[in-house]
Amino acid sequence: MMIELRHLRALSLLRETGSLVRAAERLHLTQSALSHLFREMEDRHGQELFVRKSRPLRFTSAGLRLLQLGDDILPRVEVAQRDLARLASGQAGRLNIAIECHSCYQWLMPALNTYRDGWPEVELDLCSGFHFAPLPALVRGDLDLVVTSNPDPELKGLHYEPLFSFEMCLAISLKHSLLQELKRRWVEPQELAKEVQITYPVERERLDIFQHFLDPAGVEPAGIRTAELTVMMVQLVASGRGVCALPNWALYEYLQKGFVAQLQLGREGLWSTLYAAVREDLREQPYLADFLKTARNTCFANLQGIRTARARARARASPTMTEAT
Amino acid sequence: MMIELRHLRALSLLRETGSLVRAAERLHLTQSALSHLFREMEDRHGQELFVRKSRPLRFTSAGLRLLQLGDDILPRVEVAQRDLARLASGQAGRLNIAIECHSCYQWLMPALNTYRDGWPEVELDLCSGFHFAPLPALVRGDLDLVVTSNPDPELKGLHYEPLFSFEMCLAISLKHSLLQELKRRWVEPQELAKEVQITYPVERERLDIFQHFLDPAGVEPAGIRTAELTVMMVQLVASGRGVCALPNWALYEYLQKGFVAQLQLGREGLWSTLYAAVREDLREQPYLADFLKTARNTCFANLQGIRTARARARARASPTMTEAT
DNA sequence: CAATCATCATGAGTTTTATTCATGTTTAAT
DNA sequence: ATTAAACATGAATAAAACTCATGATGATTG
Q1: A2 at B interface, C-beta within 8 A
Q2: Are the beta carbons of A64 and B140 separated by less than 8 Å?
Q3: How confident is the model at residue A246 (pLDDT cuts 50, 70, 90)?
Q4: pLDDT at A322
Q5: Which 8-state DSSP code applies to residue B46?
Q6: What are B98-145's pLDDT values in tens digits?
Q7: In the prediction, which pLDDT does B261 show?
Q8: How many contacts does A have with B, using Cβ atoms within 8 A?
Q9: Which residue in A47, A68, A84 is closest to B65 by CB distance?
Q10: B1 touches strand D (CB under 7 A)
Q11: DSSP secondary structure, B239-298, as one string
């Protein structure tokens, strides 16, 4: 037989009340039950847990060690139990968020701030700077929500909630020769072979420009240069150090200010959809559903040039509307 | 009903094995038993714990939360269980030591070093700088051994193992007028009323000179000055800033070097006995019994002027021998 | 696509464990 | 010494944990 929480709870209560009778009362048991219980524990461990004939009650070293264990773990069990109850009722929960798309901080931060007001009980955590694959971590339970544009259909048990569709665009210097040479508003992959790509400092697989544009065409850029911040990337582009792919909504303000020019990636433009990946069973939870709503609202309120995934799907079906923004 | 460790163990094993059948094998149960067990847990918490029809096995958020709890607390339970087993067998244990007497570091450190070699499994900790009463902490289980010269007979469940008896002596400057004035080797409390006392920086109640010499006679010294280290206290005495009570064994080397002179406190000398206080049930433990032996050996090997408590008791009974050292 | 195999669920029956009840023993207080 | 409160104990009972036998489900394969 093994230690059980029941034993630790009883022992803790024995210390608290100072007598079997009162401890039994608190546990809604008889004094006899506790007497049997402690005797069994003592038999199991081969030593006394407390000194019977003594007032006030005294514990032996073994008893004290078990009390210490109880002090250590019982509160944790309580917390877990509350978490489960809240999870069942949908009142609150944990929301460990990771984002794959670096620019997304732009809308995620305001969204989180708004959300926090409505759900102060939800334990929010933003797991940036992770060096593990986020979607498996979501399945494992280390994360609760992943913002990604690359759903993995292999992973079971996940639901991908579309947030919005956006266009990946190429930021290019106003003085760049391509702007003059091309008689069109879009580039082919081959036309970027001589350019330096400015990117976020993350793995190549997580950059849409490579995964969905250059790599499929077998084009390698003249160089790759990284920058942490979007504003730095734009600055490098503006000063002619290279070109850079950014979501249209991230690029918008810099276009307005006339810092850089914009080209579409390919004739159709490189559209993709951003999803919030969550575990299926969490999807219905009010606190999560509301987070998704808040996130979407924040995005459509603040980001220029994005579309609902549905609208974009319709647009793709009827090519005449493709370029509408 | 409440969460029990059995549930957490089963769930962890389910994750480890990936199936009810294999988890049941490992637990020496039938698959049916586990099926019933998990169903009950789910009923209790009002939600599924894992997704049945799925390979590989997937857990729900609730299941993951319980797994996390298990990962958190099950290892702690294991550790406690091992501790209890070792406590039962007397192989090893914990030894959190506190000392009331500041000078005792002088022999405690070598004793600990010797002891460590023989009992590498025992978790040794020296709780110095405590600001709580050490004997109650010993009863409570926060400490396992307290070196004290003031046993408290009120506290039940403690055993006081005598280490040795020693004499509290007064260190006094070689040029001090008292040395000339007195025609004897001892002082009365009243004769210290004009002196500054140099003491360790601890509460007055913990200083034998006050508790057993000055306070009973109602004598207040001209001043109190503190120093952290014995050597500093002796230095202050040597330079005439005051007098200072120290155990004879701590004073010995400074007398030898001729830094200070020594006077007895009262005609009989102020003898007291140093005890190692332990909880009664720990007393028989081999690892503890051996610590006491090592400590005593170290003391008698290194300290000059100490006596066994028994010898001192005999000496006190026959006054003619009182002053023998 | 049926056949097969492995896994899991289920209900009744059984064993084990937890608890109570009735009563005796010990302890501390008066 | 007497008494009251607390605790221990063994038998009886209630509750739980578990098994067995079997049926359902899902994945695999020829």
Answers
A1: yes
A2: yes
A3: very high
A4: 44
A5: T
A6: 998 888 989 999 999 999 998 888 889 998 766 778 888 888 888 999
A7: 93
A8: 120
A9: A84
A10: yes
A11: TTS-BEEEEHHHHHHHHHTTS-EEEEESTT-EEEEEEEEEEGGGTT-HHHHHHHHHHHHH
For domain B94-164+272-303, say whether CATH 3.40.190.10 is its number: yes
Q: What confidence tens digit (pLDDT) does each residue in A20-32 have?
A: 888 888 888 888 8
Does A69 sit within 8 Å of B80, measured CB to CB? yes
For chain B, helix (H) and strand (E) counts, in that order, are 12, 12
> Is any atom of strand D within 7 angstroms of residue B29's beta carbon?
yes
Contacts of A61 in chain B (CB under 8 A): 87, 93, 141, 144, 279, 281-282
Residue B159: pLDDT above 80? yes
Please name the residue whose C-alpha is nearest to the C1' of nucleotide D6. Answer: A21
Q: Which of the residue ranges A121-125, A166-170, A304-308, B177-181 has the most confident prediction, judged by mean pLDDT?
A: A166-170
* Span A94-164+273-304 CATH architecture: 3-Layer(aba) Sandwich (3.40)
CATH of A5-87 among 1.10.260.40, 3.20.20.80, 1.10.10.10, 3.40.190.10: 1.10.10.10
Query: Which overall architecture, per CATH, does domain A165-270 show?
Result: 3-Layer(aba) Sandwich (3.40)
Question: Measured from the CB, is B56 under 7 Å from any atom of strand D?
Answer: no
**Nucleotides of chain D within 7 Å of a protein C-beta?**
5-11, 16-21, 25-28
Closest CA to B171 of B183, B161, B162, B179: B179
